[in-house]
Amino acid sequence: MKNPGLSGLRAELAPLRARLVAHPLYGSLKTLDQVRTFQEHHVFAVWDFMSLLKALQRELTCVEVPWRPAGDPIARRLINEIVVAEESDDDGRGGYLSHFDLYLASMLESGASTHAIRAVLERLEGRESLEHALEAAPAAARAFCGTTFEIAGSGSIPAIAAAFTLGREDVIPDMFRQIVRDLDRSGGPRLPSLVDYLERHVALDGERHGPMAERMLASLCGDDASAWRAALEAAEASIRARIGLWDAIQDLVARPRRAVHA
Question: SS3 helix, strand, coil % of the chain, rounded to 5?
């Protein structure tokens, strides 16, 4: 049975989601330099996704000692399952890697610079503030991450869950499927690590995590109109931030190549 709150949310978001799914960036990654530019910005979305996930894990499960039962079973299962996949997925060679590390490996394969993302992480390791650490990121990625961290730090569980579900899990398969299609076309750059990363998320998010996340969001919002409003606002902000990031990358790939450096 369809959830009326979720159906209404999807209807409200449909025009914005359509803009994102139809973005011209997907067909613009025609050269290795253009893919590198994309990766040097997109890696920040790979990274900050974990903060949305961890915010939900903190709110919907127990991560304290002593442990105590907490949260809805559907939400617990979803969050814990995604944490396992994101932090320690099977690398296909008998070991385990986080999806973030898999993405970094794909950047090394393509020759994309990891300088900016590593600089941000080094600043955070040095206990610098998030705001100061993100100064090492390219401007478009910094703006995108700003929206993510504002929602993750809002304390609103419906907002965080909506950004996670409708701003990420729901749209990722449609976005990534188009990138894979164009990378696989004749004459495109051959980047098996990047394609493997994208295809893994198309399968996981489209077949399992996306539907589970929708059930979680519907359960969290229930019949609370204010919760659904918070969810709508956060989902809209997340999708607009992604469109803004894609717009900026689209502009950059049309220019001569300049690697991201501090």
Answer: 75, 0, 25
CB atoms within 10 A of CB 29: 25
pLDDT tens, per residue, the chain with 262 residues: 578 889 999 999 999 999 999 999 999 998 999 999 999 999 999 999 999 999 999 999 999 999 998 878 888 888 898 899 889 988 778 889 899 999 999 999 999 999 999 999 999 999 999 999 999 999 999 999 999 999 999 999 999 999 999 999 999 999 999 999 887 764 566 898 999 999 989 988 888 888 889 989 998 999 999 999 999 999 999 999 999 999 999 999 988 666 555 3
Residues 6 or more apart from 108 whose CB is under 8 A from it? 114
pTM of model > 0.85: yes
Q: Which residues sit opposite 96 in a β-bridge?
A: 90
